[in-house]
Structure to design on (347 residues):
């Protein structure tokens, strides 16, 4: 009986011959050194995300961007039409004019009373009364000017600009809608700076903190990303007894957007496992399988798998033996298997 190791090597040498006869690549199943650690579900979020809201009441006059549009910092997002604010500014300016006139009159009166007092024509009480009226007029003028500044500031709130450059992820209002202070208008996020958020059980915190390598899997994109950094927040949720962990992603990732489902993989060591490429796995409903190649015949076999590692490999817990050959491209293997099944049988 051949030695098991020699059998695996022989199959590996024969794999190119089988590959030449088949329209897809194959590889033998064998034990390899794989990562050992902890994995958990997570989600992608933007580091910088802002929902701009109305600061004054008014009617939406125009919305300049839609969801999915790219904006620059300072770009006008929404304009509000607030006639009341315009009237308030005009009224404040009229009050300033009145207060300035009163101040001019009080100043002149105070100067005349001071001269009369110096000539001993009026009493100290009369001078004090003129001085008090002058100071009151000064205070009223300052208050009127402040009212104009406040009205102008409120009027400026009718133009809402982007706080930073990014993408519009949601639009919350329509033209003609009446808004009040605090009403959300648009949500903007920076796609260049993303991170993944996971909630880790307390008993796994030691492993997570000690992990020398952290990788993020985006199943929808079939993408694996090495983390740029990790932050364990110093507080636990009382209800779930979990701790929030932020995993920083590299900048400018293609196709990754906030809200995407992800898996966080914390590698704490290595171990020899029976592994196969995760890309070779076929998932149909609740069935997980691979295409096994034997004598140039392809058959679908159900397998039980473990957790993928940071290199895109997954451990085989049951269904395959070392030395068996599997198809690396399940799509081409499916087409080949159907063609073989529909081919006429030789008499």
């Amino acid at each position: 009986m051949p030695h098991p190791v020699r059998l695996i090597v022989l199959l590996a040498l024969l794999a190119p011959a089988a590959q030449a006869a088949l329209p897809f690549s194959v590889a033998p199943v064998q034990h390899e050194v794989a990562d050992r650690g902890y994995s958990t579900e997570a989600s992608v979020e933007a580091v910088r995300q802002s929902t701009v809201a109305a600061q004054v009441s008014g009617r939406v006059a125009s919305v300049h961007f839609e969801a999915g549009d790219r904006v620059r910092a300072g770009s006008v997002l929404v304009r509000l039409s607030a006639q009341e604010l315009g009237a308030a500014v005009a009224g404040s300016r009229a009050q300033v004019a009145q207060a300035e006139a009163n101040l001019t009159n009080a100043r002149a009166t105070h100067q005349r009373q001071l001269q009369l007092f110096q000539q001993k024509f009026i009493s100290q009480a009369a001078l004090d009364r003129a001085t008090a009226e002058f100071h009151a007029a000064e205070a009223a003028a300052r208050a009127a000017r402040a009212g104009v500044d406040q009205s102008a500031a409120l009027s400026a709130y009718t133009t809402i600009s982007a706080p930073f450059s990014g993408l519009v992820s949601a639009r919350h209002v329509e033209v003609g809608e009446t808004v009040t202070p605090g009403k959300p208008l648009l949500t903007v996020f920076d796609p260049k700076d993303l991170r993944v958020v996971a909630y880790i059980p307390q008993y796994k915190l030691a492993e997570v903190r000690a992990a020398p390598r952290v990788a993020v899997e985006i199943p929808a994109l079939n993408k694996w990303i090495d983390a740029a950094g990790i932050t364990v927040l110093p507080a636990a949720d009382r209800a779930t007894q979990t701790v929030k962990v932020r995993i920083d992603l590299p900048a400018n990732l293609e196709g990754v957007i906030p809200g995407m489902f992800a898996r966080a993989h914390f590698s704490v060591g290595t171990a020899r496992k029976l592994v196969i490429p995760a890309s070779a796995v076929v998932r149909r409903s609740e069935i997980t399988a691979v295409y096994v190649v034997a004598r140039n015949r392809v058959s679908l076999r159900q397998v039980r798998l473990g957790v993928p590692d940071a290199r895109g490999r997954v451990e085989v817990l049951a269904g395959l033996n070392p030395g068996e050959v599997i198809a690396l491209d399940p799509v081409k293997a499916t087409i080949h298997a159907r063609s073989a099944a529909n081919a006429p049988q030789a008499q």
Notes: The first strand starts at residue 26 and ends at 28. The CA atoms of residues 109 and 123 lie 15 Å apart.
